[in-house]
Amino acid sequence: MQGKVRIIECPRDAMQGMKTWIPTEDKIRYINLLLKAGFDTIDFGSFVSEKAVPQMKDTAEVLRNLNLQGATSRLLAIVANTRGAETACTFDEIHYLGYPFSISETFQVRNTNATLEESLNRVDEINQLVTKHKKELVIYLSMGFGNPYGDAWSPEIAITWSERIYDEFGVKVIALSDTIGHATPEIITHLFSTLIPALPEVEFGAHLHTLPHESKIKVEAAWKSGCRRFDGAIKGFGGCPMAADELTGNMPTEDMLTYFHDAGIETGVSQEILQEAWRMAGEVFPAH
User: Fold this and answer.
1) What pLDDT does residue 288 have?
2) How do the domains of the chain map onto residue ranges?
3) Is the pLDDT of residue 241 over 80?
């Protein structure tokens, strides 16, 4: 099974929910090591409300201290509104701006304090900004694989929203996001095998959350359905604070890389530096 895949490492997602403050110098040290590993992209921070996500209040300082000389990884920052996007666009080092667009209105209000219609307006405004500043927008379609809040959900709803975001705004990177670990191999297969042929101009990504024993079958389902962009976090740190099961964290990067290595799929990631980052993560992240 030959091929090539983009791996997006997400220290921002791993760190943002930690209640114990991670010192800025530790974030810088950790992300600088990740920059040496050869990840396609690093989701390094976010320009969001300090009150809502206090762990990310030092994103600008972290960015100013990253050693990007010789690094091939592109930087991605998450924004929750136009103001955050305006700030992110002032940094030439940032390539991608990511916006979490939930197809669950309940979660959209919780996550970004906006209704779906207000959120669509934000997508429009942010898209105009990234175009002006020669950056690229990534839409994270959160609740893409299920909804615990009672809002209507089906694979067809997720497909319809993906098509609408592309048709209306021309967004060419859409990451289907399993915010709470609801995805099954069957749903993953259905979504990617439907969307990828239907929207060939779009690069679809998989931002999966998982229980430890389910990581391989989820990655395999997405890969075999045509997905070539995968988000992960070393040791599976992070995850949705609202998830009922504390074990439902981010997709462990090391599990993905083991699967791809065993399948003969090129990732571009240095195993040696990954192991060093895995060890450093034990120092940087507060004990659970």
Assistant:
1) 54
2) 3-284
3) no
